[in-house]
Specification:
four-stranded antiparallel sheet; alpha+beta; about 50% helix; four-stranded mixed sheet; 10 strands; binds flavin-adenine dinucleotide; Butyryl-CoA Dehydrogenase, subunit A, domain 2
């Protein structure tokens, strides 16, 4: 048994493509130029149910599983990586942490409005001294009666500038470190002590908010501990596994956009008395993109199916992210080259696609980190423990 797209998945893809073409594509250049998060589009995505695509209906979702969520990420990223990133940070890591490890009450209170797009989520892990080495975080949470007092901060948090809810990882027992000393919390951003300190000015995905957050004596009720005290590192790593798979799906969208543009241009542009499509050097470039895209699609949807059928997938999720981000970058680079000077012009979306694709190799664990994860899993099976 392996993955297949059900009639429901096919109908869902049709509906999302229509939404993406009508609501997302027309504003993609504008939000990049103006460095604006498309809040209205985000709310519409919620209204049509897409921000809850993978969550069960009892928590405000559509119940289309990880396959459905990957379809959403593919189709949105095919037309706009910024909007895809906003959606991914909201569903795939922010709300996902609550879905995976929240209790029933937390899911009712937070997941339902997040799934409906009435509120937005962010995922707060990275700190200035803890990027790839996520266990090195310094944000501290100290128990005081029925609350925890958080002090510290996070950097590079997608959706951080406008999220209503942030899942935050903090040190609760410095002596134990990642194994028992880190706890995840659900934080509401209008609580006293929570501050958005600054917004990053970025080369790509400019229609997203990437914010630095500061916590000063931020009081979080004990009932907002996500999962168990001391097990936050596991909660966050589980969410990142899901995030890595769906970033692979996002990269299918980026590579598809590149292939479609390259074919369209090669068919129409004439040089030396013939269409570019007649030149073997161009044909081979297009064959290379198409082959890698097909391999990526097979990998990503197979892993989504493993998730939906409750099978292990962590190692393959790292491969989805590593391979996907590199395939998308390569595909857009090739498509841009096929467009010659026009590919370099801001009048053509490939220039934006080229800048946007670069982040795929950095966030949610760099390509180097994915290679470390993949290699350590392989060596562990052979009785060898490797250190990052
Ligand atoms: C636009 C954007 C959005 C983001 N969104 C979020 C978010 O929503 N939530 C969140 O928590 N974080 C977010 N991040 C943070 C992101 O996950 C980190 O930037 C990333 O994990 C890398 O960490 P770093 O930037 O500190 O780089 P570093 O860890 O300092 O790494 C620098 C370089 O060294 C390499 N390196 C590090 N260790 C090793 C090693 N052992 N072996 C070989 N090479 C190594 C890395 O691969 C990288 O190339 C975001 C970042 C950006 C830029």
């Amino acid at each position: 048994m392996d993955f297949t797209f059900s009639p429901e998945h096919i109908a869902l893809r049709r509906m999302i493509r229509e939404f993406a073409e009508n609501e997302v594509a027309p504003i993609a250049a504008e939000i990049d130029r103006d460095h604006q998060v498309p809040m209205e589009t985000m709310r519409k995505l919620g209204q049509v149910g897409l921000l809850g695509v993978c969550f069960p209906q009892e928590y405000g979702g559509m119940g289309a599983g990880e396959m459905g969520y990957c379809i959403l990420m593919e189709e949105i990223n095919r037309v706009c990586t910024s909007t895809g990133t906003n959606v991914g940070a909201h569903i795939g890591i922010g709300a996902m942490a609550i879905y995976l490890d929240g209790n029933d009450e937390q899911k009712r209170r937070y997941l339902i409005p997040l799934a409906r797009g009435e509120q937005f989520a962010a995922f707060g892990l990275t700190e200035s001294g803890a990027g790839s080495d996520a266990a090195a975080i310094r944000t501290r949470a100290v128990r005081e009666g029925d609350s925890w007092i958080l002090d510290g901060g996070k950097v590079f948090i997608t959706n951080g500038g406008y999220a209503d809810v942030v899942t935050v990882m903090a040190v609760t027992d410095p002596a134990l470190g990642a194994r028992g000393g880190i706890t995840a919390f659900i934080v509401e951003t209008d609580w006293e002590g929570f501050k958005v300190a600054r917004e990053e000015d970025k080369m790509g995905i400019r229609g997203t908010s990437t914010a630095e957050l500061v916590f000063e004596e931020l009081r979080v009720p004990h009932e907002n501990v996500l999962g168990k005290v001391g097990e936050g590192f596991v909660t966050f790593m589980k969410s990142l596994d899901m995030g890595r798979l769906t970033l692979g799906a996002a990269c299918i969208g980026g590579a598809e956009m590149a292939l479609e543009s390259a074919v369209r241009w090669a068919k129409t542009r004439r040089q030396f008395g013939a269409e570019l499509a007649s030149k073997q050097a161009i044909q081979w470039k297009i064959a290379d993109i198409a082959t890698e895209l097909e391999a990526l699609r097979s990998l990503v949807y197979r892993v989504a199916w493993l998730v939906d059928t409750g099978q292990p997938f962590g190692q393959l999720a790292a491969m989805c992210k590593l391979y996907g981000s590199e395939v998308a970058s390569r595909a857009i680079d090739i498509a841009l080259q096929i467009h010659g000077g026009l590919g370099f012009s801001r009048d053509f979306p490939l220039e934006r696609g080229f800048r946007d694709a670069r982040i795929g190799e950095i966030y949610e664990g760099t390509s180097e980190v994915q290679r470390i994860v993949i290699a350590s899993n392989i060596f562990r099976e052979h009785g060898v423990r490797i250190r990052p």
